[in-house]
Amino acid sequence: MQSKSTVPTPDARLREVRSRLDAWAKQSGALEHLERRPRIETRPPKDDGGDTKGHDGPPNLVDYRLVHRMTFGYSEEEGELYRRLGPSGYLEYHLNHEAIPDDYVAYRLAEFSTLQRSGAALGQSDWWECVHETVQAHVVRSIYSKRQLYERMVEFWADHFNVFAPKLGKLNTLYQRDVIRRHALGSFPTLLNAVARSSGMLEYLDNASNITGYPNENYARELLELHTLGVDGGYPEDDVLDVARCFTGWLYDWDESSATYGQFRFDPQYHDNARKYFLGIEIPSNGGIRDGERILEILAGHQRTARFVSRKMLRHFLTEDPPQALVDRVAAVYTATNGDIKSMLRAILDQKTVRRYATPKYKRPYHFMVSSMRATRAQVPYVFSLWWYYMEKSGQTPFFWPAPNGYPDAYRNWVGNLQPRWMLVQDLVQSWVWQVTVDTFGLLRSRHPQTVVRRIGEVLVGGPMPEPERTLLLNYMGSNPSPDTVREALGLAMAGPTFQWY
Amino acid sequence: MSGPRFKGCSEYEDLSRRGFLGLGAKAAALAALGPSWLPNVKFASRDRLDAMFGEGRDIIVSVYLRGGCDGLSMCVPYVEPNYYTARPQLAIPRPDSTAAQKAINLNGFFGLAPALQPLKSIYDAGDLLVVHATGSRDETKSHFDAQHFMEAGKPDKRVWTGWLGRHLSTAPPMSPTAPVRGVALTYQVPLTVEGGPKTLPLSTLQDYKIGGFDETLEGRRNWLQDAYASADAALANAAANVDATLQMLANLNFQNYTPAGGAVYAENEFSMSLKAAAALIRYEAGIEALHIDYGGWDTHEYQFPLDGQMAALMDTFAVGLRAFYTDLQAAGFMNRVTLVVVSEFGRVLAQNGSYGTDHGHGNCMWLMGGNVIGNRVLTQWPGLAPEQLFEGQDLQVTIDYRDILAEVVQKRLGNTSLSAVFPDYSPTFRGAVAG
After folding, report:
1. How far apart (Å, rounded) are the C-alpha atoms in residues B365 and B346?
2. What CA–CA distance (Å, rounded) separates A139 from A135?
3. Which residues of B26-61 are buried (b: 16+ CB within 10 A; e: fewer)?
4. Which residues is B378 bridged to in the sheet?
5. How far apart are CA A58 and CA A212, in angstroms?
6. Helix (H), strand (E) at residue A299
7. Is residue B88 pLDDT above 80, yes or no?
8. Environment class of residue A98 by beta-carbon count within 10 Å: exposed (0-12), middle (13-18) or buried (19+)?
9. Is B293 helix (H, G, I), strand (E, B) or coil?
10. Which of A150, B97, B317, B390 is the most exposed place for a label (fewest CB within 10 A)?
11. Taking the CB of residue B182, how many other CB atoms lie within 10 A of it?
């Protein structure tokens, strides 16, 4: 068995990540910049007498609901695309994600040298470099990628098949690239199989040391409870043990000097070949690797899996408590298409379904951050700024949730902690988040209060700001606001209640 | 702004200042000096408060060890031969063995893991109680269901408030003008405190700010409160709590916080949370409930309680609690604080093939404080022979965790509404705390 004595514990790695971020903040000048809080040189826009062009509605949060649902936050560019393509055209455009040019993201990702490395090359790489590059690339894509629906599905599966980067180290590079991102808009059974064979999951849930005679049930339990059937999936406790026995010998190559580092391997000498039972189905003896494959087949084809995954996708995109009839409808699509994720999305994001069932969803901290960057067209040359300054403090850094259930996706979990959000956007508009800049007047085009408030609505929600925020913003600015005050109004609008939802 | 924006419940407005701080004469004298943000309140007789709600309520600190900690490694039943046969590589040697690392004898039956040595003197001083073979009687081995049930105080997934949150919502504030009553030193609101009035997560004390120019801070705070006033109730509350906390922390210089008694907090998240809790308690802002999460206890692999994962976890646990105790004891607060430690389940008696243990059942709980009846292991020990185990493999639960928590809630927090705090359960008090 693998010797782990030289591998740092996840806890030790987490501490190292934090101390590296703090060191970065000191050395880069980010901390000093924040403490010094320099005022922006103000170049007031030329007095255009108030911009009367543009529309004062009716577009709003409701009309652009599909854009809000399918992206990491509204942007005027997405709004324009939606108006041009119409609801179903817009959905199909995003479902055909590989056809969407994404040059800027490709340009940005070129600076991360570990992302495309082979397993063998990763074996020789530094774990921290790999971990921070996967996090940085994830943030860059969330903010800037034109393939927004794809990125939202990547986020969904990264939570559904959660791993903890400080435990995986460089295996996270392989896991995110070759498992989650490769199959995010593919088929669920294929994704499930890829996860089961991934060094990332085998390491994270300890299946890499699950051996005959002494099964380790960690992966088996979460496979049933979190990945497929759900905790109320009707399997008895004894089945967990038998499923664990089916996956004995599913290992990966953990030798960092090996040419196949990080690759799946099945080792028959550690496999329990005795007969097992799962959900009353006999798994005959001497099945070898077929045992685990059979379990995955049963699970992927099970009605409860179809419902469990459908409900969770509905929660992600439409509403926290989807009605059973809707769940059943999407589950039927799962069953009919053998778990085709795009087909399920068509059923969920169909215009009529969205109109009828979507309820406001509270942004999680990460979603909030990304949406504020997108709406304000922020320049984010260094992700470390946002990581150190906000993600770390808000409690949602990609791949940093330790428990296998993924970051929670419910209002009640996140509603209490508004302070990091308020701080982020109000410092953002003053350019106090190191190197992250927002061109407020390029965005708002005016300093006339009426125009400013209209533009704020247009960039944040695609229409007029709802009351009372609209009137409160006008009151805050008065009749002749200074450039600083205009920037503050934009920050307040993002800190306000409307922008917490999508 | 000159004071907290939020008035206490009017029915408690005339409670005595000394009473609401719940202090002795010494502390009341201190309170007279400050904190400066404390608003004036009408004075009433101490008797009236006591008559209404009992005197001497403790501040509660709730610690949750997420992942299902291995109680059999923490408080070792070293006289049980089955403990040693089931865990050939993971057992902690008997205190009378010749091994260099071995259990620290507590009472001739149980011993502390050597990594928990820092807790021994607290135990000896009578301020630390171990409850063993305790936990939730529900059979689930799902972390998430088990955590839900334990935090909700009832094995029911439809219950979305926590036992501590319901305590706060059924008890009058210890301080009627307290800007904040409950704090979770976390990023999210844990279910344990869900439903508590004036309760919020605080992920930082050091930089609790909302950005922007200092000159315009007041105007922006007002704007935000106005904007959120008509928002969804939970969101409006959250916004109000942020504002109250800004006010509360304005004068707390946490960066220069000096622990009393030479206490040394380690540089890890658990110790930092305890340090923050101690600072908030000593600051006497009226916070009456604090919650801390400490994760990583799901030791399926390489558990090794003497030099592996479990040793590191226990070391962090013990060093943290020791610093907290030293700090509050020296500052004169430990007689007004009760700290409880729970985890969703214990672990299987037998080790697995990865030198770890899988999800089990019975476990231990820890209580610390001046009013804890400590220096003992409170248990109805079920034994570890195969026929004595739960489903043939786990330590049984012979004391429901709610028996212990309910006793704390009634005797130390002064709340007799136990049917609200622990619905559909009739607790049996076990003599865990004084009162």
Report:
1. 10
2. 6
3. ebbeebeeeeebbeebeebeeeebeeebbeebbbbb
4. B131
5. 65
6. helix A290-300
7. yes
8. exposed
9. strand
10. B97
11. 30
Backbone angles phi, psi at A239, to 5 degrees: -65, -30
SS3 of residue A60 by DSSP: coil
Q: The tokens 């040359």 sit on which residue?
A: A381
**Least CA distance to B304: which residue of chain A?**
A5
Do residues A153 and A316 touch, judged by C-beta distance below 8 A?
no
ipTM of this predicted complex?
Answer: 0.94
User: How confident is the model over B297-318, as a mean pLDDT?
Assistant: 96
CA A423 to centroid of chain Cα atoms: 22
The predicted model gives B147-159 an average pLDDT of 96
**Can you give the pLDDT of all 502 residues of chain A as single tens digits?**
444 445 778 888 998 999 999 999 999 999 999 999 998 876 766 666 665 555 444 445 567 999 999 999 999 999 999 999 999 999 999 999 999 999 999 999 999 999 999 999 999 999 999 999 999 999 999 999 999 999 999 999 999 999 999 999 999 999 999 999 999 999 999 999 999 999 999 999 999 999 999 899 999 999 999 999 999 999 999 999 999 999 999 999 999 999 999 999 999 999 999 999 999 999 999 999 999 999 999 999 999 999 999 999 999 999 999 999 999 999 999 999 999 999 999 999 999 999 999 999 999 999 999 999 999 999 999 999 999 999 999 999 999 999 999 999 999 999 999 999 999 999 999 999 999 999 999 999 898 999 999 999 999 999 999 999 999 999 999 999 999 999 999 999 999 999 999 9
pLDDT digits (tens, 9 = 90+) for B341-353: 999 999 999 999 8
Chain B residues in contact with A42 (beta carbon < 8 A): none
Residue of A nearest to B220 (CA): A492
**Token pair 């393509």 in the structure block, residue:** A85
CATH architecture assigned to B61-205+253-421: 3-Layer(aba) Sandwich (3.40)
Mean pLDDT of B288-315: 96
Q: Supply B101's token pair.
A: 């690392």
Q: Kindly report the CA angle at B263 between B259 and B267, in degrees rounded to 5?
A: 90
Query: CA B283: distance to chain centroid?
Result: 18
Bridge partners for B48 per DSSP: none
Tell how strand B289-295 and strand B59-66 pair up.
parallel
Tokens for B320?
């943290």
Structure tokens at B421: 């705090």
* Residue boundaries of the structural domains of chain B: 10-56, 61-205+253-421, 209-251
Cβ separation of A237 and B141 shorter than 8 Å?
yes
Whether B310 and B339 have beta carbons less than 8 Å apart is answered as no
Helix (H) or strand (E) holding A309: helix A303-317
Which one of B224, B295, B300 has the shortest CB-CB distance to A492? Answer: B224
Handedness of CA B232, B235, B238, B242 (dihedral sign): negative
* Interface contact B211-A430, CB threshold 8 A: yes
Please name the residue ranges forming H helices in B332-400. none
Which residues in A lie closer than 8 A to residue B295 (C-beta atoms)? 402-403
Question: Phi and psi of B309, rounded to 5°?
Answer: -55, -45
Chain A 265-324, residues with CB within 8 Å of chain B CB atoms: none
Q: How far apart are CA A400 and CA A395, in angstroms?
A: 9
Kind of pairing between the strands at B182-184 and B199-201: parallel
| Per-residue pLDDT reduced to its tens digit, B376-395 | 999 999 999 999 999 999 99
Half-sphere exposure of B209 (CA within 13 A, CB side): 16
Tokens at B78, concatenated = 């070293």
Is the CB of residue A495 less than 8 Å away from at least one CB of chain B? yes
Instruction: For residue B200, list chain A residues with Cβ-Cβ distance below 8 A.
Output: 416-417
Question: What are the backbone angles phi and psi of residue A214, rounded to the nearest 5°?
Answer: -135, 65
In contact, A474 and A456? CB cutoff 8 Å = no
Dist. CA A483–CA A44, nearest whole Å: 6
